[in-house]
Design brief:
alpha/beta; about 25% strand; 6-stranded mixed beta sheet; 3-stranded antiparallel beta sheet; globular
Length: about 300
């Protein structure tokens, strides 16, 4: 029995490490010493015969084996909570904590939050709007129950479940002569002002790589932090832009036109949930509402 309880402590350390990424943070989370965290991890790796973390940029990144093991531990920790007479998901069932970047929040998700609250009044909703990097961190640390985003980067503590796909489009002022073209490529924009996402935006990498592969240096007229702002700058005739059309196209913005892009670049809008926590009923219900709320448009399709 003693060895079994030692194993449970090791599993607790594993879950804390996946969420926090450092032995210091994991130790604070569990209320034990940093050396105890290190010893538990070493013992678990020795017993399993697998490396569970690799060091990268000052953080310990879980291996595929660690993520798989952690997922299988959900049932164990739910059972332990039941034995102790507590429901480890009870608080999350009363409050549903949702997060999204600004464009996704304002142009799509807000209507789904309204519909969910009307149909499920027993839940109190916390709706947080933050940038993509902050969203990943909040999900991984279980400060949010679910997020919705098309971000391209990943985090070992975050599970991504795609529910919508779309392809990059070129956004043009409706009076631009480029609207006569059926498809837009970087070569056609050599001297055309470009409205680009700021460098930390998840879309920026794709735009930069697309121009680089075409051997063209774009003429960047402005950079903006949100797609909503990019749309307004294009509408004003200040340049063209490359964007993910979902969810902007749902609102059918006036004064701008969408054109397909060559080469094609696909985006996937995903649900983000914590790897280290069992999914609550409220989260599952909200996911169903979001899926039902994605009406058809010419530029994106649901993933079933």
């Amino acid at each position: 029995m003693r060895n079994n309880w030692h194993s449970i402590r090791e599993y607790e350390v594993l879950r804390a490490m996946i969420l926090s990424g450092t032995t210091i943070s994991a130790a604070k989370r569990l209320g034990i010493s940093q050396s105890a965290v290190s010893r538990s991890l070493a013992s678990l790796e020795s017993r399993l015969g697998n490396s569970l973390f690799v060091r990268s940029g000052g953080r310990l990144i879980p291996t595929a084996e660690a993520v798989h093991l952690n997922k299988n531990l959900d049932t164990l920790f739910q059972a332990l909570a039941g034995i102790e007479g507590r429901d480890e998901n009870a608080d999350k069932e009363k409050v549903l904590r949702i997060g999204a970047p600004p464009t996704m929040a304002h142009r799509f998700l807000h209507s789904r939050v309204v519909a969910f609250m009307q149909a499920q009044p027993q839940y109190r909703v916390l709706f947080e709007i933050c940038d993509s990097d902050a969203l990943l961190l909040r999900i991984a640390e279980e400060r949010l129950d679910i997020g919705v985003s098309d971000l391209l980067s990943r985090h070992a503590g975050v599970k991504m479940t795609p529910f919508r796909r779309s392809k990059m489009v070129c956004l043009l002022p409706e009076k631009s002569p480029l609207t006569q073209l059926d498809v837009i490529s970087p070569a056609q924009l050599k001297d055309v002002p470009l409205i680009a996402p700021i460098k930390r935006h998840s879309l920026r990498g794709h735009v930069d790589r697309m121009f680089s592969r075409a051997g063209i240096t774009p003429r960047i007229a402005a950079e903006a932090a949100t797609v909503v702002t990019i749309v307004e700058l294009v509408r004003a005739g200040l340049g063209v832009a490359f964007i993910n059309p979902f969810p902007i196209a749902l609102s059918e913005p006036e004064g701008v036109c969408f054109r397909p892009v060559d080469p094609e670049i696909e985006y996937r809008t995903c649900f983000l949930t914590p790897v280290g926590a069992a999914m609550g009923a409220g989260t599952r219900s909200f996911m169903r509402f979001v899926r039902r709320g994605g009406r058809d448009d010419p530029w994106s399709q649901p993933i079933t």
